[in-house]
Amino acid sequence: MGYCTTADVYSKVPPGTITNPGRAVASVSVSTNTLVVANHGLADDDVVRVVADAGGSVPTGLSASTDYYAIVVNDDSIQVAATVGGAAIDLTTTGSNVLLVRELPFTTWIANATALMDQTALGNVAIDETAIPQVVRDMTAALAAHEALTFVGASTVDLERVIDRTQKLFDRWLRGAAIRGTNAPSGAAVAVAGTAATTSARGYSNGGTIP
Questions:
Q1: What is the pLDDT of residues 164-190, one digit of tens each?
Q2: Cα(9)–Cα(145) distance, integer angstroms
Q3: Euclidean distance between CA atoms 7 and 49, whole angstroms
Q4: How far apart are CA 121 and CA 171, in angstroms?
Q5: How is the beta sheet containing 96-102 ordered, strand by strand?
Q6: I want to staple 42 with a disulfide (CB 3.0 to 4.6 A). Which of 55, 70, 175, 196 is the partner?
Q7: Is the pLDDT assigned to residue 76 strictly greater than 80?
Q8: C-alpha–C-alpha distance, residues 54 and 21, integer Å
């Protein structure tokens, strides 16, 4: 678990901004049960879905918008399995206008943002993940959303303004300043490690900001 949820990440951007466009499947082979997608960038067991563009159909053996697990054949071809580590599904028709959709890696984005918070800002502050302060959740979500927008090729300009405002609140919280509303952390939400000689009231050590 990280310091925010997928819903938190979505809350930082306008609806429809983090899109998940499908990649066109160049061809489908019923003899090898493979889908050809140039430079697909997948790893074994990545979650994918197969859908049909307007007027098309998915290959027989697959169901539209069902989670499948990639079996990498080479850089340009995959098979799909119904379960992690399972056998390739038998394809009996090629379908038409087929698109391959990869699950957006929210777990990775949140993990990266959480690690960045730990490494560059939280210092000696240990966050209780059962009672994450709202300001920590907001900062982590904003950083994860920035990575998400970069991933899908969307503009990050508006979000960077949000990050700047959120970071100012976050920095105040780290230094023990009072923050109004839901950003005000309870004493139980933060555990401080270290000594008074090296850390502030919230355990913030040696200053620092999130790039």
A1: 989 888 888 877 765 554 444 444 444
A2: 5
A3: 21
A4: 8
A5: 23-24, 96-102, 47-57, 68-74, 77-81, 34-36, 27-29
A6: 70
A7: yes
A8: 14
HSE (side-chain half, CA atoms, 13 Å) at 152? 23
Domain boundaries, the chain: 6-15+106-192, 23-102
Q: E strands, the chain, where?
A: 23-24, 27-29, 34-36, 47-57, 68-74, 77-81, 96-102, 125-127, 190-192
125-172 confidence digits (pLDDT tens): 677 777 888 888 999 999 999 999 988 888 888 898 889 989 888 888
Q: Could you identify the residue written with the tokens 């009072």?
A: 178
> Is the whole-model pTM more than 0.70?
no
Interatomic CA distance for residues 46 and 83, integer angstroms: 11
Please tell me the class of the 23-102 domain: mainly beta
Q: Provide CB contacts within 8 A for 50, sequence distance 6+.
A: 25, 35, 58, 59, 62, 64, 66, 68, 80, 98, 99, 100, 101
Angle at 19 between CA 132 and CA 43, to 5 degrees: 85
| 17 alpha carbon, distance to own chain's centre | 14
Residues 6+ apart with CB under 8 A from 26: 36, 37, 38
Residue 68, pLDDT score: 95
Neighbours of 196 (CB within 10 A): 8
